[in-house]
Design a protein that fits this description.
The protein is an alpha+beta fold and 123 residues long. The chain has one domain (8-118). 37% of the residues lie in helices and 22% in strands. The chain has helices at 39-51, 86-118, and strands at residues 8-9, 20-26, 62-68, 73-83. The protein has a four-stranded antiparallel sheet, with no helix packed on it. Strand 3 and strand 4 form a beta hairpin. 7% of the residues are buried. The model has no long low-confidence stretch (mean pLDDT 86).
């Protein structure tokens, strides 16, 4: 199967029009049994991460925290959303076209095989 596009979008990956790119800009480094982050360090990190996000997209910035497992582990990420660039849209459309081409080639090969197998039979 073809390689996926190098970016993620908020819509379905098969979305034909320009999508909304999700840009990851950071994560909290928390691990171990005792999880604690000094508040001063946390605020400094969040402030510097927010500064990396273009001002017009800062309202979309989110801190995502996800717990999983029987002995809960946490993942975190900081992301924001912006419109897909022309290059990202072209990359995703290229991927979609390659998926369609692969499917067409697979269907044609199966049709040829079945035609060979059953085309010679008489009913």
């Amino acid at each position: 199967m073809s390689n996926l596009p190098s970016h993620a979008i908020a819509e379905s990956i098969g979305h034909e029009d320009r999508g909304t790119t999700i840009v990851t800009v950071g994560a909290l480094d928390v691990s171990g049994d005792e999880v604690g982050i000094p508040l001063v360090d946390l605020i400094e990190y969040l402030t510097s991460t927010l500064a990396k996000i273009p001002a017009k997209f800062r309202s979309t910035a989110m801190l995502h925290i996800k717990g999983y497992g029987d002995y809960v582990s946490l993942d975190s990420g900081i992301s924001y959303q912006r419109p897909e660039t022309d290059a990202e849209l072209a990359d995703r459309r290229r991927w979609l076209a390659s998926i369609n081409a692969e499917s067409e080639a697979r269907d044609r090969a199966q049709f040829a095989r079945l035609k060979e197998k059953y085309g010679r039979e008489t009913t």
